[in-house]
Amino acid sequence: MSIIVLKLRFRLTPHMDSSSDISHPAVRALPATSPTPLERLHLPEGLSGAQGKNRAPARGAQIAASDDLSAVAAWLARYANSPATLQAYRREIERLVLWATLQRGKPMSSLTHEDLLAYEHFLSDPQPAARWVLAAGKKLARSHPDWRPFAGPLSPASTRQAMVILNACFAWLTEAGYLAGNPLSLARRRRGPAKARITRYLSHALWDAVKEAVEAMPAETDRERLHAARCRWLCTVLYLGGLRAAEVAGTTMGAFFCRRDAQGTERWWLEVTGKGNKPRLVPATDELIAELARYRRAHGLPPAPQPGEARPLVLPVIGREKALSRGALHLVIKEVFGMAAERLRARGPEWEAQAELLASASAHWLRHTAGSHMSDRQVDLRHVRDNFGHASIATTSIYLHTEDDARHQATQERHRIKWAK
Questions:
Q1: Is the distance from CB of 386 to CB of 240 less than 8 angstroms?
Q2: pLDDT tens digits, residue range 105-126?
Q3: Buried b (16+ CB within 10 A) or exposed e, 285-295
Q4: Which end of the chain is more exposed for a tag (fewer CB within 10 A), N or C?
Q5: Residue 297 and residue 418: Cα distance in Å, rounded?
Q6: DSSP calls for 116-168
Q7: Closest CA to 294 of 228, 240, 245, 248
Q8: Distance between CA atoms of 356 and 39, rounded to whole angstroms?
């Protein structure tokens, strides 16, 4: 596994609230400041964790970290091959380190169970907002001076997920001999109510509204034409393939390939690398291949990709053929959903609730939408599991097996996008 190196070199000067340890000499010496991203963080000795109260004896350590930032970097390095996981885990540990030092006046390795209960409450309303929360509607680079670690208060579900991630970090640092104990291990285990089904997906009617919005996009100039083609292709591959945005960003045109089944029928497949760096084969249905050819022709390319072709799966409208990031793909889909929402609002006030739902959707909703629609159309759940790269349907699914060709046939017959034009 490749090693990730975090350059943890920026200055942090905490501003205390009523719960801060203001007696600490390092705290008294530092004026107020705004949070700064983890990769540029430099902590003074008193807040570095070199002498953290929860540090384990050095003789038992299994990692070379001598302070909290080095320990965090060692934990995050384990996820270097999973960019989406790395980003999510970095976000949560970054928020905690900044809160601990800026708001609590403690190094992370001195946090107690009570501190983490206070932090869990803080997540539901990060205050003072001017320090912690981005200005409404802004999405700033991490290098921007107005960057903040929060876009707003976390929902109960997001708060639970954040604490799960932090618990995993503390547990690992304890096992690695860096911490003497995991302060989150004392938390009461709460069993949330089981969810009967995914809720973040589009109904068939809303999905039709999205397709109508894409088909109505202007195409008078070359830029408009290529942008409309990109929106249509991205919606197609996310829906028909059930892919994650990160999987689209990391896949090339050369990942499509054709093979014959036992009866001599040619079937196209798309090989993607999913979570945990696990490869899987996704059925490339006739519709998906036709849309691929349509998209490539829009860029003046031959309809079928060549084996090993290095072009990204989604091409930029202008400039060199560089793959769009997961974030950029997300913004394209958000634009599509926004256009569709405006078209719904134009139908009348009775559509406002549906428009709001659509405007709140993200690229990952299309994966949930694809899975829900496949289930609606009676596609075998084992096929859905294998198409999406899920580990299991339920505990007993380890005993289930599907043949690739049967899965391809079922997907092609029952999972379609049906563009009007």
A1: no
A2: 999 999 999 999 999 999 999 9
A3: bebbbebbeeb
A4: C
A5: 19
A6: HHHHHHHHTS-SSHHHHBPPTT----TTSTT--SBSSPPPHHHHHHHHHHHHH
A7: 228
A8: 36
Domain 204-414 has CATH 3.30.70.360: no
C-alpha–C-alpha distance, residues 249 and 84, integer Å: 11
- Which residue carries 């190196």 as its tokens? 5
Q: Counting Cβ atoms within 10 Å, is residue 308 exposed (0-12), middle (13-18) or buried (19+)?
A: exposed
Q: 320 vs 226, 301, 309, 311, CA distance in Å?
A: 14, 14, 15, 10
**Any idea where the domains of the chain sit in the sequence?**
25-186, 204-414
Q: What are the contacts of 396-403 at 24+ separation with CB within 8 A?
A: none
Q: What is the pLDDT of residues 291-328, one digit of tens each?
A: 999 999 999 999 999 999 999 999 999 888 899 998 99
Does this model's pTM top 0.85? My answer is no
Is the dihedral angle over the CA atoms 8, 14, 17, 23 positive or is it negative? positive
| Block residue for tokens 């539901």 | 124
pLDDT of amino acid 396: 24
DSSP result, 378-407: T--HHHHHHHHT-S-SSGGGGG----HHHH
The pLDDT value recorded for residue 391 is 62
